[in-house]
Design goal:
The chain has one domain. The protein has 6 helices and no strands.
């Protein structure tokens, strides 16, 4: 085996061992409470209407008794805060 091949194999083995000791990035993301994690819902999720989620738009439109188009227009006018949108639409 040449010196170069031996060095590459050594670096690869050290790198593999080092990776085993590193924390899993998915665990870190879970600890941070990332917004796209559907299992982590709470205060901020309930106070905002996310137009990027079709099922959420449909549910909010149904609960506010408006069409999805009316809901999108209201959010464009007053922002995505659920209480503000509800007041804007005359609902509470």
């Amino acid at each position: 085996m040449t010196d170069r091949v031996a060095r590459v194999k050594f670096i690869q083995s050290v790198s593999a061992e080092e990776r085993k000791r590193q924390p899993d990035p998915h665990d870190w993301l879970k600890e941070q409470g990332m917004a796209d994690d559907k299992s982590l819902v709470g205060g901020q999720d309930r106070k905002r209407i996310n137009l990027g989620e079709d099922d959420e738009v449909m549910n909010w439109a149904k609960s506010l008794d408006v069409t999805e188009e009316e809901l999108r227009k209201a959010i464009a006018e007053v922002g995505d805060d659920a209480e503000t949108v509800s007041e804007h639409l005359g609902r509470k």
